[in-house]
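Usage

Read records sequentially. Each one opens with the input sequence:
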Amino acid sequence: MQSLLTDFRINELVSSMERCHIAIVGDVMLDRYYRGTASRLSPEAPVPVVEIVEESEHLGGGANVAYNLSSLGVQASIFGVVGDDRSGEHLRLLLEGLGIESSGLIVQRGRTTTVKTRVIADGQHIVRADQETKERIGSQVQKNLLASLNEKIEQLDGLILQDYNKGVFSPEVIEQILSLALAHNIPTFVDPKFENFFAFKASTLFKPNRKETEDALQCRLTTLDDKLKAAHELKSRLRSRYVVLTLGSDGMILVGSDDDPVLVPTRSIQVADISGAGDTVIAILAAASSVGATMREAVELANHAAGIVCEQVGTVPVTRQMLVTMGSNVHA
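and closes with the structure output:
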């Protein structure tokens, strides 16, 4: 497929992103990393002993989407729920340190902030341990979250709904958020998970991956025809203006309102870690389309940006410089 993105167009889009304001509502989490070396097995069990040399904490889930947007120069606001614990405090401090507006983070007493702890030895991912509460947030917390979003809605150029099935979203909350955005003519970009998959009706863009789509439609996406049929079925059932089906190494499929489906192949990359790639894609789709990119342009940009992120170890946001440099590499 011939790329529509010239170096000039990429620079034009990236330069415009600092003028838009996008909010993310959904599940937020903290990514904790322990990195070190492993040269021997434990005498207690057949597992490696990792000698830790570095500890770090990063934004995860919807917060990582906000990080990606902020790294692109976009004004980002986050709306979600954390627990009354130290991890929740750390998450808020990380957001504030990056200039991400976090007054929409609601604290629910007794809830555990989602933390994913990864141990990496000699560049290899050894284990991940999760701490989280998956129960739906309380009714008063729902009201506070929606009220906080309502206060900001008129300032927004786009709204991302980021679902990880960690309890923020329910069909009722989803309906209220999408109705609020529609009433204010704010485009909505949905990154779904299985539990609420078909509750996200009438969004501007719906972005599932292959596994989520296979689980939701109870089918296997093997051939190109399978994938095209699935994307069209999702668009019809969800009444979305666009569906972007992400397919990992097979690229992405864009199905829109008027044009023929577009298959955007992935570029050749050396995959180091896929963590956060989906967050990067939804951030780029929202940011690019909010500053005037056609959806095909936005999908091409997101597809290449995801490749950049997958070449890095850990949850790494795409930056403005990465996208500008990417333009030169794509057309070299």
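Summary fields computed downstream for this record:
- DSSP finds ten helices and 13 strands in the chain.
- The CA atoms of residues 244 and 254 lie 5 Å apart.
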